[in-house]
């Protein structure tokens, strides 16, 4: 019994310790580069909580991160590494905006339709590597990485040639497809916070429900842990692989829809990857692929990125430091073995005394 | 008489448990000394103390009468203690020689002296009759050969006292025979051996003396010559154990399983089941005896739908299931205790309860409208845990943390509770201790008496002889003979398994 408790506690301790180490190392870097870490971190925290506008922007930033984190985690639970969340998010963004522009309908139909469009596009982008993996044993990491480039360039092609409105972007979507909220914007001092944040919370609940409460989720997890035992028990392993990649892609696609329908209300030619999808890998890793963990780590990363602006303005610390801290946190999570080792050393010393 | 190894009053604690409580082990020069105990009794802990992986809380270790502190495995090495691990520690893509010299490479002017290494390895191999090719790659040689490489490794490092940790667990009967010969050669060359095992027959065959431990406590040391399998088992388990499986004569009825002219290919496309015919009737246990690799695995996979048969038919209770997928086979009334419980039998990261429901989770009342009913699932799991005596803290414990015997009981609970017409048990007692083996054999016979057909596939001849009513001998993918279990013995079966009577014609 004590062992189990220890194990669970440890699951929470490792991300927390990793975050601590990340900030500690970040502070040392600030010292070396001639900044005062205390001023820097105070500015960072003020940049997240110090103003209701910053806080609204933080929630807005974390919305797509929640979705990309869920997408990575969902596939991971089935034993698959979906590196293609970036591409799935891009096509989801584009298709949802497309639906938002070309269709005219009352909001109650139009908005769900636009989100669904994003979900289907993302699902298709996950379905392809899923089928290739299940049918021909092509490794999903390779396929999804390539699908990312295909997504970006295909979307850019369509926008450039058929939908270019002004400069680098499409027209605005119809209001009936927009997630923007005057109310949420007003209570956060006119930030870009939109209804998508609530949808993201619902999505966290949805993933938890699918994986842990449904028959399909049982099969997906079983396949993820042990393919052989799953097929022995009569589960269709290949079908579950395809399904898992598709659902994962759908989560990512809806994440893209949140950006397209909520934050910007348009799509634009992408000069490079948005990184929202890639950050999902970090979010899922830090959140140990659990819904609640993903929500919290999306908040952390969203907040860090938002707070970086203020850190530069107030304390003169380069905003790239935040990227370094995030990278260090991930490094420490990934090297949880090291943390375990240090922890056990400290424990045994305590016992010795 | 001087002892080469003395471990006196060893005590080793782990948080919450005492793994070794006042155990004494004394090994004489030139003997094979058995260390006997059930799974989890503390055998491995004791050996790891000797090998320097653990430090004991109390007690002393003497090597050749001199008190020593074995602080790490290098010290053990220097003292001439070598360990042949149960799970081999070999680099698959290296050659035999490269593996053996790894860590103590002979160096000549800064480069590895390969020629000398190969010669040294070949010399040691010859001297002890190991017959290992020094230049073969590990991935190309059999499990038995890999084990000999492990033995060579210890000898190359100058070991005089060899610890064998469950050495026969992964070996075929033929390889076991050869290993026993090798051990005798080692003794003749002046080595001493500690054999960790829970197989009584092996102890009777090769060992001189035997130290028994039970639940971390030393029970005593006996001369094997003065002991019987029964007396050793009693010491190990702490109560009387019967090896004779008690059962009444079978009352076979109609055919449940009938296989006609079955052909199955393995993953490489080579025919491994070649025109196999077999019938199993309700109310009887048919044991399939054969040397490993004669098509047993593929036969089971074909019946259970995990592998597609090339041709032929498989009938269960009048239904042609040849082309069925696993789930449909299960639903047609087939229960399957798989031979590899970690690979096929369990999802180790799932709870015991989830594993018990692994074949039925999708049925009512466990699933309704696609949503699982966990309270109902765990209620059922609790019932079966109770009924099948699965020792687990509760139904929500990870399957991984259970002992092998209890994991197997969970699988048996799952498969038997569905009351399948045909129960396939593949190596159901592999790696289990006496108590668990007894339980499983009793369950199989109970199922038979309830009128089910049981197909038992095992590499342990004793098991096949004791539990089966009739024995089908498989050789190169065919059933070459079916004999009555009461009217045969190991010798006859051994001959048949080696293909000795293949020309005798069709099975009866």
TrEMBL record, chain A:
It is found in: Cell membrane. It is a multi-pass membrane protein. Keywords: Cell membrane, Membrane, Sugar transport, Transmembrane, Transmembrane helix, Transport. The keyword Transmembrane helix applies. The chain crosses the membrane at residues 12-32, 63-83, 89-106, 113-132, 138-159, 193-212, 241-264, 276-301, 321-343. It holds the Pfam family BPD_transp_2. InterPro entries: ABC_transp_permease. Its main location: membrane. GO terms for cellular component: plasma membrane. This is Simple sugar transport system permease protein. It comes from Salipaludibacillus aurantiacus. The lineage of its organism: Bacteria, Bacillati, Bacillota, Bacilli, Bacillales.
Automatic annotation (TrEMBL), chain B:
Residues 5-240, 257-501 form the ABC transporter domain. Pfam families: ABC_tran (PF00005). GO terms for molecular function: ATP binding; ATP hydrolysis activity. InterPro entries: AAA+_ATPase, ABC_carbohydrate_import_ATPase, ABC_transporter-like_ATP-bd, ABC_transporter-like_CS, P-loop_NTPase. It is a peripheral membrane protein. PROSITE patterns: ABC_TRANSPORTER_1, ABC_TRANSPORTER_2. It is found in: Cell membrane. GO terms for cellular component: plasma membrane. Keywords: ATP-binding, Cell membrane, Membrane, Nucleotide-binding, Repeat, Sugar transport, Translocase, Transport. Belongs to the ABC transporter superfamily. This is Simple sugar transport system ATP-binding protein.
